[in-house]
Amino acid sequence: MRMPFYLPSLTVIINIFIKFKPGLGLQAKLEIAYGTHHTKMMLLLYEEGLRVVILTANLIHDDWYQKTQGIWLSPLYPRLPDGSSESSGESPTNFKRDLIDYLLAYRSTGLGEWVSHVQEHDLSDTRVHLIASIPGRHVGSLKDKWGHFKLRKVLSDHTSPRPGRESWPLVGQFSSIGSLGPDEDKWLCSEFKESLSRLGKRDTPLVSHKDRHLRCLSPLVGGGSLPYAILTAQKQPWLNSFFNQWSADISGRTQALPHIKTYMRTSPDFSELAWFLVTSDCVFCVERNACVYLRQRFNYWRFIYFSSSGLPVHKIIRSSLLH
Question: Terminus of the chain with fewer CB atoms < 10 Å: N or C?
Fold first, then answer.
């Protein structure tokens, strides 16, 4: 008989932190009025090294009980020898630099200790790209440092169009929807699709998966993880044609409500992936123009795996997601 798994409440966890380290600041400083902090991340320091954990679940019981979530668990990073340079321990994907830049973006003196911990460890075994967002208006080259513009840059730098790939569909699976504009060309199938289409354009629109009819194990609790305001839906009826049914029969998770968010480019038979992204990033459009890009959330964390030749699906999924 399987025993149920329970997590203590977030309040209990915070009180434990405060008890053992008084004065610990636990709240991100938000630079804009509508900013939020959306990151789900753990930095775990051991005598043997450092580990980074990125996940899609919040630290609450309901997110860990009968929902589909994703976790990326890093290798155990060993400590660098004393006297190592700042560039030591970097990965081919610049994961270390991107992680440090994200931590520095908090502008919190309390995080300085953890920036030092990351700097002191060897992250060279990392084979994923880290794509983060911070709130604020990002101008010029800073646009390419955060959000889906960073995804666009990573795909541009590390992939190239290949014959036949232009017919591979783009798939987005997400649990929350915000305002996307009066028609599909306002953002979803223009700016956003451009970021995901580095392997070549395709004539058919981006395929976005959203749960239209879902019988989940905990409907009263789980429904809160599928927000889509009725007033917003009424303003964008064009989006209905993009919806698809959530189904995960192979993994036995069809009735486990999907709080996970994934984006990918897959072969038509789903036997290969060109790249794969797991994130806590939902889909909505905010203010932007040719010079300024506005982000509202303090951070979305994304991880991207890519393969220029096409990698079998099971090899990527096994290494990136723990159900």
Answer: N
pTM over 0.85: no
Least confident of 71-75, 181-185, 220-224: 220-224
The Cα 192–Cα 187 span in angstroms is 6
Tell me: pLDDT of 13 over 70.
no
Instruction: Return d(Cα 307, Cα 118) in angstroms, integer.
Output: 27
Do 322 and 71 touch, CB atoms closer than 8 A? yes
Specify the number of domains making up the chain. Answer: 1
- Does 1 map to a domain? no
Can you say which residues are annotated as belonging to the binding site?
Answer: 40, 261
Q: Could you give the CA distance from residue 291 to residue 286 in angstroms, rounded to a whole number? A: 14
Catalytic residues: 38, 259
How far apart CA 43 and CA 13 sit, in angstroms, is: 16
* Rounded-to-integer distance, Cα 260 and Cα 85, Å: 38
| CATH number, domain with residue 220 | 3.30.870.10
CB 103 within 8 A of CB 130: no
Which pairs count as long-range contacts for 45-50, CB under 8 Å and 24+ apart, including other chains?
45/117, 46/76, 48/76, 48/78, 49/76, 49/77, 49/78, 49/79, 49/121, 50/76, 50/77, 50/79, 50/117, 50/118, 50/121
The conformation of residue 158, written as its DSSP 8-state character, comes to H
Distance CA 316, CA 314 (A): 5
Residue at token pair 């480019």 = 265
The owner of tokens 């409500």 is: 257
The binding site for substrate comprises 40, 261
Under a CB-based contact definition with an 8 Å cutoff, are residues 243 and 212 in contact?
Answer: yes
Sole residue written with tokens 């305001």: 229
Q: How sure is the predictor about 75, in pLDDT bands with cuts at 50, 70 and 90?
A: very high
Q: Which domain holds residue 282?
A: 10-320
The mean pLDDT value for 99-108 works out to: 90
The pLDDT assigned to 8 comes to 53
Instruction: Determine, yes or no, domain membership for 4.
Output: no
Helix (H, G, I), strand (E, B), or coil: what is residue 114? Answer: helix
d(CA 134, CA 28): 11
CA max distance for the chain: 60
